[in-house]
Amino acid sequence: MYYTPRFALPDDPILSSAVQMLVSAPVLLVAGLVLGERLAVSSWSGRSLLGLLYLIGPGSVLAYASFVWLVSRTQPSIATTYTYVTPPVAVFLGWLILDERITVAVVVGAILIVGGVAALLIGENRGDAARPEREVDENSGHRVSPP
């Protein structure tokens, strides 16, 4: 966060997120190797490679690009609600695909999380009526706060 305002990133949020990931990936790889992490390529399996490709593709590139795009077009408090809904979705998919157990505590937690996100969104929508409309920058298409 310290360096972010000091770098000129592309106006296109998708291109911006791609640049950030392409720069950070090699830096993190080198940092991991310097700190003692080792790549045991001989122990990789087809299943682990498929998992890695999933984490790189939809799990990172698509998700982060979508997040950056959404943040540029709406309020951050609304854009970040996906972080609260992700765990219940993951629990549901674990139950559906991997036959994991769902306990009463898990169901109650999921209901509380989804209810909290719904309350936040309802509160944001009510608050929008009191706020001045945000203008859209003609060049970038991003919303900007009124002066």
Give a concise summary.
By secondary structure, the chain is mainly alpha-helical. It has helices at 13-34, 46-71, 76-79, 82-98, 104-128; strands at residues 135-136, 143-144.
If you had to describe this structure to a student in words, what would you say it looks like?
Helices cover 64% and strands 3% of the residues. It is mainly α and 147 residues long. It folds into 2 domains: 11-73, no CATH class; 75-131. Strands 1-2 form a two-stranded antiparallel sheet. Strand 1 and strand 2 (143-144) form a beta hairpin. The protein is flat and about 50 Å long. The chain starts with 12 loop residues before the first helix and ends with a strand. The model has no long low-confidence stretch (mean pLDDT 79).
Question: How would a crystallographer describe the biggest sheet?
Answer: 2 strands, antiparallel
Percent strand equals under 5%
Beta strands, count: 2
Number of domains: 2
- Let me know the average pLDDT: 79
What's the number of helices?
5
Shape: flat
Cα-based radius of gyration, to the nearest Å: 20 Å
Spatial sequence of strands, sheet with the most strands? 1-2
**Secondary-structure-derived class:** mainly alpha
First-residue to last-residue Cα separation: 24 Å
> What is the ordering of alpha helices and beta strands?
HHHHHEE
Low-pLDDT residue intervals, each spanning 5 or more residues = none
Question: Helical proportion?
Answer: 55-70%
